[in-house]
# Entry
Amino acid sequence: MRLTAHTDYALRILLHAAVDPAGLFSIAEVAQAHAISRNHAMKVVNLLGNAGLLETVRGRNGGFRLGRPARAITLGEVVRLTEPNMSPADCGNCLLQGACGLTAILRQAMAAFLAELDAHTLADAASATRLPFGLLADRAG
# Structure
């Protein structure tokens, strides 16, 4: 399964916030740090904010931070939220639709993939994540 760029960006933004849960991050700084367009980062932050995964703060000194503890956010939840289509194949346009032995196998494989992601939290991923270029140190100074 290949995840979309939208999901990749969502995971990066959440990891960034999880590494410093007390921090308040601007869309511009996270977009620049992860080489994501500001427009894409804004869309992702909006989606994650509406889902309660991020808390957004408006205003001049606003930004975003985790909306829930990282240990309460599973990677499966993020992938389900951000992936537009979880079907591994386009069975709807297939001549074999309804008579294919592959459909059930692909469905089982997708269930196993999501079950593995559900077994891991954002905190699990954040514990092994180090922000490059001293980003946290740059914020403090």
The domain at 5-140 is CATH 1.10.10.10 (Arc Repressor Mutant, subunit A).
